[in-house]
What we know:
Blueprint: E1 8-11, E2 14-17, E3 20-21, E4 31-32, H1 45-48, E5 51-52, E6 62-63, E7 84-85
Antiparallel strand pairs: 1-2, 2-3, 4-5, 6-7
Amino acid sequence: MLHENPKGQIKDNTLVLNGETLTAYVFKKNYYFVLGDNFYNSFDSRFWGFVPEDNIIRKVTMILFSINPDKEGFKKFRFNRFLRTVNAQ
């Protein structure tokens, strides 16, 4: 991982890390896949990769408002999701 600073490379279709051929790897830290709040235009783990646990400062607790980008006008608002709490674990 980027935050663990390994010196990895691929040689003859084999992953080599710090001069040794890898068959398995145990990460030193816990990593999370983080999704942004705007599915189509978020900079999140799909853009910058996994996040080390010690870089996470908060978790989501509530949805402020929600829209459906495939609908138009008043029908795009998903009122059943407004101010709804999130049961994140």
